[in-house]
Fold:
Amino acid sequence: KVVAVIMVGGPTKGTRFRPLSFNTPKPLFPLAGQPMVHHPISACKRIPNLAQIFLIGFYEEREFTLYVSSISNELKVPVRYLKEDKPHGSAGGLYYFRDMIMEDCPSHIFLLNCDVCCNFPLPDMLEAHRRYGGMGTMLVIKVSAESANQFGELIADPITKELLHYTEKPETFVSDLINCGVYVFTPEIFTAIEGVSTHMEDTANLRHVSSFEAFHSFTRTLPKDFVRLDQDILSPLAGKKQLYTYETMDFWEQIKTPGISLKCSALYLAQFRLTSPHLLAGGDGTKSATVIGDVYVHPSAKVHPTAKIGPNVSISANVRVGAGVRLIGCIVLDDVEIKENAVIINSIVGWKSSLGKWARVQADGDYNAKLGITILGEAVTVEDEIVVINSIVLPNKTLNISVQEEIIL
Ligand code: GDD
Structure:
């Protein structure tokens, strides 16, 4: 048997995702019309002999109750949310729930970061992992040398694929091969985490009695039950024939900002073309509105037949799209109203917002720039004929003058 664990973090994480994470936990923010965490979960469904999926985080339980029960029914695989009383780190969180994870005596445990966007080649990783015969196999990808320092940089043996060296977000360049945050482990991972936390406990005690406080102070200032997978486990185990790498040649992104989430929504829509074409609009659901390229429309949304939508548009529940509206490259969240002839380009429109007639909400679409996409927070009103360009508008604002390159607080 195999189990999968998805690390979802908690409210103190994902602060760069504001203002979209004020009311909705980041893992439930919709990409291609499905909660972010839905994409790794449905990828897990392709793992042979999958017994259970666990989401581990420190959000309130009630935030996940609805989603977890509906997805369990849909996939016919039990999905459970396990809440930490406080953050234990990416490895500490896993270890904290080891008894529940090991309940079905799985031979392998998948561990996935919730905030990565890729095609999750999990069955291929499992096969490679069995061939390598180590304790763990990590998904890796080549990125540009300039962007590599935002991730765990690593060196792998070109023939055996063994992980030889690992440094988390190094200051000086190590390698353009990086950690994708997707792993498969044997249950020995728990012994490895235990080893690290006992070692930490020892150094902590030592520090307590030692008069050479300054000497030891470089070791650690974090609590002893806080264990990070990357720095505390992967780094020390590199080069010991225990960890291996599996390189993906497909797409991969880390979803830290709203700008990147817009890009990831487009990537997942493109993937639906291959995996779930029934989720893409094209006639029936949109009642003959013109659809261009990959578009998702929630069944409860009402789109006027004269609207033109796409490519890369995702429209959530109860959205109303008026006559002559044009939507390109955007995420429109629940309960938004878009009146006649309004235009939205390269933007995210928050829950319950409304756009007046002939209003324009747009941006250049530079996903990495701070104001490269326009974001309207929850319940923002853009009045008739108002233009909002390359701006971020915080929740509950009413715009009656046009703005450009501004953050409206
Ligand atoms: N449950 C729980 N508890 N989850 C946590 C905790 C915790 O205490 N701390 C982090 N996480 C989750 C985050 O939500 C995220 O999904 C994952 O664990 C990793 O988060 P971080 O430890 O903050 O690392 P990171 O996202 O900056 O970088 C990691 O992922 C990159 C790939 O996206 C590193 O492993 C990098 O090396 C890697 O490139």
About this structure: Confidence is low (pLDDT under 50) at residues 209-218. Residues 72 and 78 are 5 Å apart (CA to CA). The chain has nine helices and 31 strands.
